[in-house]
Amino acid sequence: YAEAFHESELVNGLQMLLGVNFHRRVLKGDANKQLGQHDILLQKKYVQFAPHLRLTWQPGTYYYMDGGRKINLGSSYPVVAWDVEQGMSGVLGSNSKYMRSELDVQYHCRVSGGNTLYLRFGAGGYFYTKDVYFVDYSFLKQNNLPINRSEELGGVFQLLDSEWYNSASKYLRANATYEAPFLLLHKLLPATKYLQNEYVYYNVLFISQLHPYMEAGYGVATPYVDLGLFVSSQNLKPHRVGCKISFS
Length: 248
Prior knowledge:
The strands form two sheets. The protein has an eleven-stranded antiparallel sheet, with no helix packed on it. It has helices at residues 31-35, 185-188; strands at residues 2-11, 14-26, 45-57, 62-66, 69-74, 79-87, 98-112, 115-127, 170-180, 197-206, 213-221, 225-234, 237-247. By secondary structure, it is mainly beta.
C-alpha cells in the first residue's frame, strides 16, 4: 500500500486534501480450494489505483497568527467533511473500478455550564462498481478517531464486531455523547476529588444486515484513566456487554 497527498486551506475554515493511493494485494495459499462449492473464484493478484479528494468545512472558524503560522481556535458551527475516491481500472495494472463517497458531520453543542452534547452523523457507500473492489471506508473504521480529543470513547463504536466495518456497500450512522461534570456518581459520592466528568453514550448504525446496530453506555473520566461500560444490540436482539478503559 502506498499513498501520496497534499493538504491545503483554500479559504478560512475550508480544508482540501488531494491525493492518490495504490494497493497491491497478492493471494497466499490455495484459498479457492478452501472455498469448496461456493461460486467464487479468487484471483492471485488484485491491484487498486484511486485518486482521492476530501473537503472539510467549518464556517466561522476563529484563528490567530503566530508569526507566519495560522492557529485555528474552533467554531460554534458544525464540521462537515466530504470524502470521495475513484478507482480507475487499467492504470498501473489496476483491476478495480468504483466510486466511494462519504459524508461526515460533527457538532459540539454547549448545553449549560460545563455540560456538552457531542453529535456525529455520517453516511456513505460504494457506487458505479463495475470491477472488483475492497470495502475500505475513511469515516467508518474500527480505529477511527473520536470526536472529542480529550475523551476517547465517544463518537465511535465500541462493541461492534470488526468484520462489519468492511462488509457493507452502504451505511448510515449516528453517534451522541453527553458530557456533564455532575450527573450520577457525584450525587452518590459527593466527596470524591478524582471524578472530573461523566458521560452518556448512544451509537446507532444501519447497514445491509444490521438494521439497526445500537450501543448505549455510561462513562467516567479521572485525571489518570477513563472508564466506559457499554451494552449493544443487533437487529433489536441483545448482543454484547463490554468495558473500555483509556489511560491518560
